[in-house]
Amino acid sequence: MVTSPSGDYTATLPRKRMGAAVLLRDHTDRMLIVEPVYKDYWELPGGCVDADESPYDAAVRELKEELGLSAAPGRLLVVDWVPPRTGRTEGVMFVFDGGVLDPATVAFHLPADELRGWAWSTLAEAQQRLSPLLARRAAAALEAVPGGVTVYLENGNRVT
Predict the structure, then answer these.
(1) Residue 28 pLDDT exceeds 90
(2) Neighbour tally for 124: CB within 10 Å
(3) Entry pTM
């Protein structure tokens, strides 16, 4: 058995990139998606899980940083293992239920250096803006809401 200089065996184990996102909906089940300045596609609000941070805490932090929302997301909707690809290591992505917001009363405050914009989108509209992987993940999250389940995906595809 290999150990680290501190004697902690777990420090020698492989590490995975993690991300956390939040599915926010309006009363007609449109989802909120955001447009990052550094990507060619839109995504659900969220981002990278920092070192020593839980995925849930990352979701809370990202809502505050990206949208100016102080909110406590609900249950876990999706866990998605994403295989490595050129320029990206493998990762585990979590999507939490952000509940239903009233578009008429909510105000978002976007960081100009991170997000270009946001939109309430039907699933079909979101699928036109999201990458194929994120479109599959968002659809699975939306389907998980009424079922009261957590869905496991690999590369955005259901595994069962």
Answers:
(1) yes
(2) 8
(3) 0.92
